[in-house]
């Protein structure tokens, strides 16, 4: 999932908050990246592995954004069927965390 560049971001710091759920023996990774235009994506946050059958809050990730910035949320599961990754209540606040 990604928030495409749309020209809506002002050049400033933002605070990204969300909840995630990662449960299962074949769990992989959950990562947050920013990408400016055609430049390479830059990892801003990540976690990996089985986190248990609970929702976990990420209270804030500071992101410096501008009108050309995209936010990418990337989930990767390892081989096998035992595992799921979900994100919910994604909020982007117009101030630093």
Automatic annotation (TrEMBL):
SUPFAM superfamilies assigned: Concanavalin A-like lectins/glucanases (SSF49899)
Gene3D superfamilies assigned: 2.60.120.200
One Pfam family from the UniProt entry?
A: MAM
Q: Which InterPro entries match?
A: ConA-like_dom_sf, MAM_dom, MAM_domain-containing
CC annotations in GO: membrane
Provide the coiled-coil residue spans: none
Protein name as it appears in the record: Neuropilin-1
Upper classification of the source organism reads: Eukaryota, Metazoa, Spiralia, Lophotrochozoa, Mollusca
């Amino acid at each position: 999932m990604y928030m495409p560049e749309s020209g809506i971001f002002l050049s400033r710091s933002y605070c990204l908050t969300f909840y995630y759920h990662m449960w299962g023996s074949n769990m992989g990774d959950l990562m947050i990246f920013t990408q400016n235009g055609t430049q390479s994506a830059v990892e801003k946050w990540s976690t990996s592995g089985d986190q248990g059958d609970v929702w976990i809050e990420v209270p804030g990730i500071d992101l410096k954004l501008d009108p050309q910035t995209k936010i990418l949320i990337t989930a990767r599961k390892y081989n096998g069927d035992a595992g799921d990754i979900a994100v919910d209540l994604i909020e982007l606040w117009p101030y630093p965390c």
